[in-house]
Amino acid sequence: MRTYGRLAAMLLAAGSAAAQTDLRQQFQFESKLWPNLHHFLYVLARARNGAPDRNRVAVRNAPLDLEGFDALPADRRKIWDEAVEVYRIHAAPLDIGYGPLVDVNYAVADLPAGAPIESSKGIPAELLEALSKAAPIYRDVWWTRHDAANRKWLGELQPLIERYGSKIVPQLAAAFQHPWPTGKLRVEIVAYANFGGAYTTEDPPLIAMSSLDPEQQGDDALEELFHECSHLMMGTVGRARKGISREVSHTILFYTVGEALRRTVPDHVPYAIRYGVWQRGWTKNFDVLKLDWQPYLDGETSMAEALDRIAGVLAAQ
Fold it and tell me: How far apart are CA 155 and CA 158, in angstroms?
């Protein structure tokens, strides 16, 4: 019979705090034109560049998303092509979740719906011009159906948040030994986000999630939402074991959030198991986590002890 000890006490304390968190008010979901256009151009430009991630499930259909485009006059198709080319040169070589493009992500997210892109600050001139010229074409060809897909996706996700969110939050707070984030959690719903289908930047929190990613629907989307939120809670893991790599930290995040969903949502299969994430070079990490992190989640050891064992085993391999 397992003894949960300190983790159980933390779970109760976190649960009490979580009871004061109204996730319906905390999550701020938005489907707006400028973030959708920015991400769409980025993904198309990555595909044109031959980026290694262009064939990942979340983005591989973007270049095929052409309904209505071929019917446009040649001059409008040329304007669109030129906008993609600008993104190919100036944005596609970059990671949209790190570095210079982060400022652009915040700039387009901060624009009120319907505001002209020219009123934004923080967007390099070449990208600003590309967005401005591409916007009328995007409105005519893609925006109506992308926005409809975003709203349908949100309509399916919100009942799951309301049903399970208050049970998931305290588990994650306890497992990561970190309070659930306070303040608004902004989520930009976009047709295409990046190769992973979602990513998070932290200052302030801004999450982008893809509505058209086939691996991010239903309770898989629920897991991915809490996965992204958990990026904001991983500092304690790094402090508990100095020198832990970003890769190992990310696998711990995958494992922990997947386990919380498995314990909470009937018949849920953790995302990393369902979609073969562990087989992407992380099989040894999964085996080690099952052996040494799972006992921590079960309350049988401390975080520090678990991380020490994980680091030792992986270093020896």
Answer: 6
Q: What angle do CA 57, 117, 150 make, to 5 degrees?
A: 35
pTM of the entire predicted model: 0.92
- Residue 1 is encoded by which pair of tokens? 């019979």
Chain position carrying tokens 């700039």: 107
Q: What is the pLDDT of residue 247?
A: 87
Using an 8 Å Cβ cutoff, are 120 and 110 in contact? yes
Asked if 65 contacts 80 with a C-beta cutoff of 8 angstroms, the reply is no
The per-residue pLDDT for range 180-196, each reduced to its tens digit, is: 999 999 999 999 999 99
Both tokens of residue 28?
A: 């701020």
Question: Which tokens belong to 266?
Answer: 């009937």
**Beta pairing partners, 207:** 187, 200
Q: Indicate the SS3 state at residue 266.
A: coil
Straight-line distance from the first to the last Cα atom of the chain, in angstroms, rounded to the nearest whole number: 32
Q: Which residues, at least 6 apart from 31, have a Cβ–Cβ distance to it below 8 Å?
A: 147, 150, 151, 154, 188, 189, 190, 211
Upper half-sphere CA count for residue 302 (Cβ side, 13 Å):
6
